[in-house]
Structure formats: C-alpha cells, structure tokens
Automatic annotation (TrEMBL):
Name of the protein this chain belongs to: Multidrug export protein MepA
Membrane topology, record value: Multi-pass membrane protein
Family annotation (InterPro entries): MATE_fam, MATE_MepA-like, MATE_MepA_subfamily, MdtK-like
UniProt record similarity statement: Belongs to the multi antimicrobial extrusion (MATE) (TC 2.A.66.1) family. MepA subfamily.
Example of a GO cellular component annotation carried by this entry: plasma membrane
Taxonomic lineage of the native organism: Bacteria, Bacillati, Bacillota, Bacilli, Bacillales
Keyword field: Antibiotic resistance, Cell membrane, Membrane, Transmembrane, Transmembrane helix, Transport
Bilayer-crossing regions: 21-41, 53-77, 98-121, 141-162, 169-193, 199-216, 237-260, 280-306, 318-341, 361-379, 391-414, 420-439
Location (main, coarse): membrane
GO MF terms, alphabetically ordered: antiporter activity; xenobiotic transmembrane transporter activity
Amino acid sequence: MSLREQQQQNLLELESTGRVFLRYLIPSMIGMVLMALNFVVDGVMVGNKLGSVALAGVNIAGPIYTIFVAMSIWIGVGGATLYSQSMGARDFDRARFIFTHSIILITIFTVIIGVVAYAFHNQLVYALGANEATAPFATDYMNVFLMLGFVFTLENTLSIFVRNNGNPNLAMISLIVTAISNFVLNFIILYVLELGVRETAYGTIIAAALGILVLSMHFFTKKNTLRLVKFRFEKPLFVMTMMIGFPSFLAEIGVSVFTIAHNNAFSRLAGTDGLAAFSIVNYAHSVMLLMFLGIGSAIQPLVSYYHGAQDVKRKRETVRIAIFTAVGAGIAITLLGQVAAPFIVNLFGNFSSEVKELATIGIRIFFSGYILMGVNFVMMTYFQSIGQVKMAAWITVGREFIFMLIFLLTLPFIFGTNAAWMAIPLSEVVIFLTILLYLKREGFELGKKEIDG
C-alpha cells in the first residue's frame, strides 16, 4: 500500500463518522447548487441582452444540456461507486482501472452522441420545439454543445471521482471556478464584445475546461490515488457501471418529467394562473431539491468505500447520520413553508391575487413532502452504493414517475385544483412505506442487521 493510499484509508477509517460526513456534506451541497447555475446564468444573461426569442432558443436547446448532465452522472456515479468499493477492499489496481474505464467511456459516449446528433441537427432542433423564429438561436447554442459537450461531461465525471478520492473541497472549488468563469466570460461576450448565443455556448464550454484544469490539481496532491492506466473495454465492468449509475440517471430525467407533468396539469386545471403559480413553487423546489441531492451525494463515496471495506459499523453510522440530517432539514423547510409562504411568493414578483393565493397554498402543501423526501434520497443512494440497484431504481421510478403521475392525474379531479400539490408529498409517503416494508421483509433494522449488496 502506497503512502497516499494509506493516508486516504486513515482519513475515512480513523476520523469520526460524523466529522467525515460533514466534510463531504458541505462541499457536496454547494457543488450541487453551482452545477445548476451554469445553465441558468446563460438564460438570464441571454434574456436580458438578446431578448425573449433568443432566450426561448436557449431553452429549447436545454434538453441537450440535460442529456449530457444525465450521461455524466450515470457513468460518473456508477464508476465512482465501483471505484470506492475497490478502494475500500484495498484493490487499488482495480480501482485505477475502473477510473480509466469510466473516463474513456464518458468521453467516447459523448463524442458519438454529439456527432450523430449534429448530423441531424436541423431535424433535431424542430423536434425539440423550435419554430422559424427560434430555430437559428437554438441551433447556434445546440451545435456548440453537440460538438464540444465532451468537455463538460468530462469535467462533471472527473469531479465525481475527485470527490470519491477524498477531495470534496477541490471538487467544490472547481465548480465555483466554473460558475464564476461562466458568468464573467458570458458578460464579456454579450455586454462587452456584443456577440451572440453561439459565443455564450463557447463561454460555457471554456468555463468547463477551466474546471478541468482546477480538478487536475488533484493529481499533484498527497490525497491523489487516481491514475490513468492502460485501457481495454471490459463488458462486465461496463454493465455494472451502467446498472449502478442508472438510478442517478433516472433521477436526473425525473426532474424533467416532474416539470412537464405539473406544467400540463396546472395548465389544464387553472390556465395561465396555474402555470405561473407552479413556476413559483418549482423555482423554490429546485433549491430544496438540490439540498437533498447534496445529502445523497455526500454519503455515496462513504457508503461505497465502507461497503468495499466490509466496515458495517461505519456504513450504518453514516446512513443514520444522513437520515437524521435529512429529517431535520425536511422538518425545518416544511415549517418554513407554512410560515413564510406569502413572503416566498412575493420574492418572485408582483402577481395577481389568484396566482398568489394558489402559489401560497401550493408551497404550504408541497413543502410537507420534504419531511420524507430527504430520507428517500438517502436510502436510494444507500442501496445504489451497496449494489442493490433494483431497490434504488424502484425508489427513483416510484417517487418520480409512477406514483407522482398517478396522484397528479387523479386527485385534482376528485378534490379540486389544490389537490394537485399533494402528488409529490403522497408519492414520498408511499415510497417511504415501501422502503420500510422491504427492510422488514429482509429482516433489516437500522443499526442491527446489514443488507448485503
């Protein structure tokens, strides 16, 4: 065992579980927020400088960004989980091969997807919803991402591995540099050089490249055990990577399903006022969702490592601390929603009394789902990190697809428009109950028995 490998082992195995969890939690939560800001910054600056048509074009190209994010998380989380398990098992050669395999895979996948999509970019841009007015802007933005998106996905995947290799602070710093660089570059592009949408996309890619440069500093630190080795495609490893990372991919796609489903539901139920009210709740929800995702991301490298090391005690303690953290945060946010709902609504602008009333009720009902949402995220990540992929996938599909859609399509027609806000809280309750039933069936009690991956 090398000195660096010994140092990482000591860090995760000798410090208190609570302290290790906190060291991963804070950078993870900050990183999640900053990752989402990159695309938002483009939209805000383009809308203010180039107008609503250009902004619509950027938004139409948004699914390309989402697909690349989802792909990088899919392979990144899947590969990093296997990497941390191998590190915990002291199989360092295998860990380095897994790292190499994942980096090469995400680069190849992104390039292939980009080249194929670029060949059909005219058809693709209209399939995404463009018209004659928005198509030029959407095409300009989309084509840059199709051809150079591998820079962004490589940065995102490398960030996950650096975090798993014991350096969550550097992963956070890289995202800070990326976000600030994106803002500065696009300000210069739009307001100083007075260029267009295509150049803002280049600015985002350049910012991601700067993030890679920051992450590359990890290879010169004492914490580093990451190393590129000779690559060969290994089908069993590829399958395992895609299987383990699949719940994270589903979770990313589920965000889009949630937004589209609620937009359609409130459009039918309450027209323009309903769409405006949901937009307010959705903006607030995006912030809270990222916080819970941060808690889940914080435990992934820890649980994976302890699982590989067969350290049941620390794995159990990590999950327990994460659950208590998630429940505490959920209760606090739920209470905040009950007290501060009118204030939150007013933050987003001066709306009609109908919109304010619907959004205020929405926040108070919707926020109640946060009490269990964090717990469900933690358990999904736990099952994913120990190789229980089916259960992890069930939690994601159940809460973000099946039960959410069932409640959203039925409750409003029985109890009225405001019942639509109950779709997420009720789906969280149902999934939580299925988790309890599964644990009981397996004879598992937190703190007493371990479910083997």
